Structure formats: C-alpha cells, structure tokens
C-alpha cells in the first residue's frame, strides 16, 4: 500500500470444523430435551422397583415419567425456541428406553408374557439401529466420532407415523394397567389379557408402517 501498488491478497481463512453444517449447530440444552433425559434416568429406577415388587412406589414413579413426557411435548409445540431436531429423536428414544426397561422388568415379575416383550424389544432395537444409520448417512464429512455423537449438529428430523404414536400410547397403557394389577388385585383379568393382544397387534402394525413409509418419516435438514 505504501508503494502505491495493489494490496496483497489476504490469506485464505481457515474453515470451521463444522464446515458446511455451521448453520445447523443448535443448542441441545432445551427444557424438552432435559425432560427426555430425565425420563431415561427414571427407567432404571422403575426397573429396580418392579423387580423388587414395590409396585405402589413404581406406579407413582411411572406417573411422574408420564408427566415429563406430556410436558416436553407441550413445551416443544408451544415455544419455538424450545423445539429442536435433537428433540425429535430424543423424545421417542426416551420412550423406547423407558418402555423396553418396563417390559423386561414386568416380564421378570410375571406380569407381561415373554413373547410380547420379545416382540417389542426387537422392534425398538431395529428402530434404534435405523436411527443410528440415518445419523451416519445424513452427517456431512468429516464423519468423525466427535461430530457423530455431538448433539449440537442437527442433520435430520424424525416424524413418527400415526400408528406409531398410537402404539406408544397402547404400550404405555398396558404398562400402567400391569403395574396397577397387583396393587388392585386384577392380575388374571381377561381385560388385561385382551390388552396384551391389542398391544401385539399395534406393535406389528407400527413396525410395518416404518418399513412402508420409511423415507417419509425422516426429513433431512439442509443448510441454506
């Protein structure tokens, strides 16, 4: 500049580690996400209480877990700044972890049949594996472990099918009914056995809906 010549070109700026996904970096510490993680934390507590046959306390803790489920959905729907792509995966994941632990422990307590629990566990394991696969496919390079497990990088948003939402409701209804059965003395009720059959039907139907509408249940987030 002092000699009157053209200014030398500026050295190229180093690109951020996020690369093209920098705009997709979001805060994972929203209230709904914290409530979902709290629900995951309640899962082993419930499992222990059921195996120890402390059904009265277990029923109360289950109600508390249900309240966190209702609250995180309500907050995410009504406050835009509390809605996140991570939450769209974390909420159903918390439900699946809670349901899996509950069904295994209730089966150990002889309150839910083994075939039904096996069916539910297999379905949920397949869905969780699919979520990990979608995460890998939608994450832009470099696909490092730190970026893969970094919840701040939003790559896809999950949209559960209608029958899947109904199935979750039916599964939770069966859990509530099974927990209350030894408390109110209706373990051998025909209505409880009928609910087993309904739960098996909705579980199979839900699994097929994800298989049939697989691509429509995943919305890839693109950087604009």
UniProtKB/TrEMBL annotation:
GO terms for cellular component: mitochondrial inner membrane. Keywords: Lipid biosynthesis, Lipid metabolism, Membrane, Mitochondrion, Mitochondrion inner membrane, Phospholipid biosynthesis, Phospholipid metabolism, Transferase, Transmembrane, Transmembrane helix. One of its GO terms (molecular function) is CDP-diacylglycerol-glycerol-3-phosphate 3-phosphatidyltransferase activity. GO terms for biological process: cardiolipin biosynthetic process. The chain crosses the membrane at residues 34-51, 57-76, 97-114, 166-184, 190-211. The keyword Lipid biosynthesis applies. Pfam families: CDP-OH_P_transf. Its main location: mitochondrion. The keyword Transferase applies. Its EC number is 2.7.8.41. It catalyses: a CDP-1,2-diacyl-sn-glycerol + a 1,2-diacyl-sn-glycero-3-phospho-(1'-sn-glycerol) = a cardiolipin + CMP + H(+). It comes from the Eukaryota. It is a multi-pass membrane protein. It is found in: Mitochondrion inner membrane. InterPro entries: CDP-alcohol_PTase-I, CDP-OH_P_trans, CDP-OH_PTrfase_TM_dom, Phosphatidylglycerol_P_synth. Belongs to the CDP-alcohol phosphatidyltransferase class-I family. Catalyzes the synthesis of cardiolipin (CL) (diphosphatidylglycerol) by specifically transferring a phosphatidyl group from CDP-diacylglycerol to phosphatidylglycerol (PG). CL is a key phospholipid in mitochondrial membranes and plays important roles in maintaining the functional integrity and dynamics of mitochondria under both optimal and stress conditions. This is Cardiolipin synthase (CMP-forming). It comes from Myiagra hebetior.
